[in-house]
Specification:
Distance between the termini: 17 Å
CATH topology of the largest domain: Four Helix Bundle (Hemerythrin (Met), subunit A)
Number of domains: 3
Largest sheet: 6 strands, mixed
CATH architecture of the largest domain: Up-down Bundle
Shape: flat
CATH class of the largest domain: Mainly Alpha
Helix content: 40-55%
Oligomer: single chain
């Protein structure tokens, strides 16, 4: 296998920059520029082929089987000057047997060498991209192997059920001492309940990863843009006494209670003869329908242009002009805004409570496939008709679907897409 190298930290000026080298020639390559490689860690002077000093670096040596990739890895902790990094990378690129790593190649090698399973790889990608506390916690659960552990338990139970069924096939001409059907049913039921719960939570887990959308809707001049500016803490939307000022959907991304939330300021909902405003109203309705949560902002003595849904939040705007029953806010003074933020966070946190450890559509698809085969197995147990071998094949198909979650089989088509999302040094 080739020895690869790359900058493992972000591009640009920094206090420290880390260059990672992984593969069979890692020690030999670093010896060429450092004189020797310490056992564990040590500080060395790095020089090019002409003896010109490149930098004084901390060198970390991870022997085979004890590194992130599972291979021999040497890391060069350099001073974070772009010029130093460029010079070291240029010298490494000129050494025989070394080449620049491709995107995600370090992580790909970690999976190929059994250091990570596919679900952990996806968790690592999400952990790197995490911007909020909720995203960090969710990604860390998957990266730490929680989904792999769950899939392993499902696999163990399904293999046990398959073994019991196949025993009745192998010994069809002999007396089988016990009826295996009750134990098989119990194993399948346990897996089905857990798998259905995990599959149901994937949609919300995706929203934690990608962000919830919260739409502010209401009639023109209800104070939507002013409220958005107050929530964002800056002027992101134009406010005016003229009705219909907002023509397009304005988006502001925020961190609410550790959850990523995109607030949407939409055009005022009303019938209009203005073609441009009409397009804005149509967009507002479309985005509001697909949003995860809607805030109906009502003006004084208004009932709202659209009927709220059971999970929508009803808010009286322009609270500085009067008082109303229920939640009221003033985008102008900020009164009631903290209470509104708390209510939004509470609603979204309630949804997050249904999340398990599966967090991608690929996981959900694999679980639904497994559930389909488990259901077929259960139906076959109800009407065996001497077709135990076909029932067992459905169970084997369920096992293959579970294996695909952690990358044991049938995942080649998704590997390139997953690893291409990583930075070069990962």
């Amino acid at each position: 296998m080739d020895t690869i190298f790359a900058l493992a930290t972000a591009q640009g000026r920094a206090g420290v920059a880390v260059v990672r080298i992984s593969g069979p020639y890692a020690v030999r390559a670093v010896t060429r520029i450092a004189g020797d490689v310490p056992h564990g860690r040590g500080v060395r002077m790095l020089r090019d082929a002409d003896g010109v000093l490149l930098d004084e670096a901390l060198i970390l040596h991870f022997p085979d089987g004890h590194s992130f990739t599972g291979e021999t890895v040497v890391e060069l902790h350099l001073h974070g000057s772009p010029a130093i990094v460029a010079a070291v990378l240029r010298v490494l690129g000129g050494l025989d047997g070394l080449r620049q790593a491709e995107p995600g190649e370090f992580t790909r090698r970690a999976m190929d060498n059994g250091r990570l399973d596919l679900a952990e790889v996806e968790g690592l990608a999400d952990l790197i991209d995490a911007e909020t506390e909720g995203q960090r916690r969710q990604a860390l659960r998957v990266f730490s192997g929680a989904l792999g552990d769950l899939a392993a338990r499902w696999r163990e139970n399904l293999i046990r059920a398959a073994a019991l069924l196949e025993a009745t096939i192998d010994f069809a001409d002999e007396e089988v001492p016990t009826d295996v059907t009750p134990e098989v049913r119990a194993l399948l039921a346990e897996v089905s309940v857990e798998m259905e719960r995990e599959a149901a939570g994937v949609r919300i887990a995706e929203r934690v990863r990608d962000g919830f959308e919260v739409a502010i809707i209401g009639a023109p001049n209800a104070g939507k843009s002013t409220l958005l500016n107050r929530l964002a803490g800056r002027d992101v939307a134009i406010t005016s006494e003229v009705a219909g000022t907002t023509r397009d959907v304005i988006e502001v991304r925020m961190d609410l209670g550790g959850l990523p939330v995109t607030l949407l300021d939409t055009a005022g909902l009303r019938d209009t003869g203005d073609v441009v405003e009409g397009l804005g109203v149509a967009r507002a309705k479309a985005r509001a329908e697909t949003a995860d949560l809607r805030i109906h902002l009502l003006g004084p003595d208004e009932t709202g242009p659209v009927s709220p849904g059971p999970d929508d939040i009803i808010v009286h705007g322009k609270g500085d002009l009067g008082s109303w029953d229920g939640l009221s806010v003033s985008g102008k003074t900020g009164a009631g805004v903290d209470a509104l933020i708390s209510e939004i966070s509470l609603r979204l946190q309630d949804r997050v409570g249904s999340i398990g450890v599966a967090m991608r559509e690929r996981h959900r698809t694999a679980m639904l496939q497994a559930l389909t085969h488990i259901g077929a197995t259960q139906d076959g147990l109800d009407h065996p008709d001497g077709m135990t071998d076909l029932i067992a094949e459905d169970l084997r198909a369920a096992i293959r679907a579970v294996d695909s979650i952690v990358g044991r089989v049938d995942v080649e088509q998704v590997l390139d897409e997953i690893f291409s999302s990583f930075c070069i040094g990962k």
